[in-house]
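Entry type: protein chain
Record version: 2
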Amino acid sequence: DDIAAEVNSRMINSMDSSSNSLTASGGRGTCPVLALADAVVYGKYGGLAPVRMRVLLQQLLADMKLSLQMSGRQEEALAVVRYLRATDPFSLPDLRDEALALASMQQYEQSAQLCKEYLAVAPGAPDAGMVGEVLLQVQLAAEVARARARKQQQG
């Protein structure tokens, strides 16, 4: 507790002179909510567990992605997923979510490629069956789209 109090005190003192801090009131003050460096999140009522800013931002973006997906805003969700994948290229849930977003946007070839990639990397994942079904559906949809395009070119 003494160490945590000293760390909290040092953070408060260092953030009082820094413009990179936010407070519970939204302005500058002596009760920081988070620091934008390598953050340790502290609140008004004592210390919380240390949290790296990157982890905090990833969680916020994951929540945003879910909200956008559930509201049918797939293009915006895809942008968030691609950002998350850029920050963590080994994230299997984000790989899966990008494939699903592309499928819902009728970008079947790209979706199929990402589904195959996901299944190659995580064949035993709990949702591998669902991703396999999506793969079959997007491959079929891609074939139908190619057949329609050929038909339009011919006549």
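Comment: The first helix runs from residue 2 to 16.
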